[in-house]
Amino acid sequence: MNEHIIQIIELTKKYGNIKAVDNVSLGIRRGEIFGLLGPNGAGKTTIIKMLATLLKPTSGFAEVWHHNILKEQDAVRRSIGIVFQDPSIDTELTGRENLDFHARMYGLNKEKREKRIAEVLDLVELNDRAKAFVKFYSGGMQRRLEIARGLMHYPKVLFLDEPTLGLDAQTRHRIWEYIKRLNKAQKVTVVLTTHYMEEADYLCDRVAIIDNGKIIALDKPNNLKNAIGEDIISVQVSDGGKFSDILTKIEYIKRIRLHDDFLFLSVENGEIMIPRILRLAHEEGIFVQSVSLRKPTLEDVFLTFTGRTIREQEASVKEQIRMKAKASMRMGGKR
Ligand SMILES: Nc1ncnc2c1ncn2[C@@H]1O[C@H](COP(=O)(O)OP(=O)(O)O)[C@@H](O)[C@H]1O
Ligand SMILES: [Mg+2]
C-alpha cells in the first residue's frame, strides 16, 4: 500500500516568465485516491498533463507505474486513463460507440471489448442509456461516460481533472460514489484535481494543496485540518484590526486570521470561548455583527498558508466568465 507508483521529482513547467509548476516533488501510493487541491491557475492541469505525457516539463521528471514520462511515453500511456477537465466525448455517437471507439484504439479484440464495455457501463450505471446519442445525456451522464471510457483499457492509474466541475451538488455526490467504487472494485489508483475543498476532503486519502505552482501542504485531510486547531470561531466585527491586536494577547487563542471584516480564531472548546470573546469585545467597545463556531475545513488550511480563500478565487473566475458571456451577448446583438 505504501509503495509509490507515481514519483514526481522537481517537476517544473514554465510558460515564458510564468512558472505554472514550480519544482514539485511528491510520491503517490498504490491504491490511494490522491487529490491536487488548489484555486484556478494553481498548476493542477499542467501537472496532470505532464504525468500523462501530453506536455513536456521544462525541467525535472516523473515516473508513472515505474515508467519514465520522458523516455517511456508509450508504456506510461498504456498504464493510465485520463478524464480531461473539458468535455472530450463525441456527442454525435452513442455512449456505447464512444467506448467501442476508444477500446479499438487500444487494440482490444471484439470479445474483450464487449465484456469490458458492459463492465464499465455497469460501474457508472449507464447500461440503460448506452444506445442513446450522447448529445441527449445530461452533464452528469456525460461525465460518467468519460470516466467509463477512461477505465476501458484497464489502467493502473486514472487521472481525473476536475471530475465534477460545473455539476450540481446531487450529481457531484453521485460521481463521488462512482470514483470511490472504481477505486475499490477496480483497484485503480486515482489522481484527481479539484478546487472544491469538500470534494478533496470527502474523496481523497491524501491531499496536496497547490498554489502558484507549488505544494504548500500535503497530508491526509484530517491531519491538515487538525493542524489548524480544534474549533474555528469566526467573528464579524466593526474594527477587525483593532480587535485582532487585542486578541493576540489572549493565550487561549492559538491562531488569529483577519480576512475582510472577519476574524478567524483557532481555539479549543469553542463553545466556552465564545462568551469570553464577546465580553472582551464589549469591554473594548467593539461592535460584533455576527459570530459562528465550526470545525476547520480545508479552506481554513488554504487560508492559513496563503492568506486567501479558494472560494474567493473561484468567485472572481465566475465573475470573469459572466463578463465574457455578457460581452459576447452584446456582440451577438450587433450582428
Ligand atoms: N498553454 C499555456 N500557455 C501559457 N500559460 C499557460 C498555458 N497553460 C496554462 N498556463 C498558465 O499556467 C498556470 C497554471 O495553469 P493550469 O495548470 O491550467 O492551472 P489549474 O489547472 O490549477 O487551474 C496558469 O497561470 C495558466 O494561465
Ligand atoms: Mg485545471
Structure explained in plain terms:
The protein has 335 residues and is of the alpha/beta class. It has two domains: 4-224, 3-Layer(aba) Sandwich (Rossmann fold), CATH 3.40.50; 230-295, ACT domain (Alpha-Beta Plaits). 42% of the residues lie in helices and 27% in strands. It has helices spanning 44-51, 73-79, 95-105, 110-123, 139-151, 169-185, 197-203, 221-228, 240-247, 270-283, 298-306, 310-334; strands spanning 4-15, 18-29, 33-37, 59-64, 67-68, 80-83, 157-161, 189-194, 206-211, 214-219, 231-237, 253-259, 262-267, 288-294. The strands form three sheets. A six-stranded mixed sheet has the order 6-7-8-3-9-10, sandwiched between helices. Strands 2-1-4-5 form a four-stranded antiparallel sheet, covered by helices on one side. The protein has a four-stranded antiparallel sheet with strand order 12-13-11-14, with helices on one face. Helix 4 crosses helix 5 (139-151) and helix 8 crosses helix 11. The termini are far apart. It binds adenosine-5'-diphosphate and magnesium ion (MG).
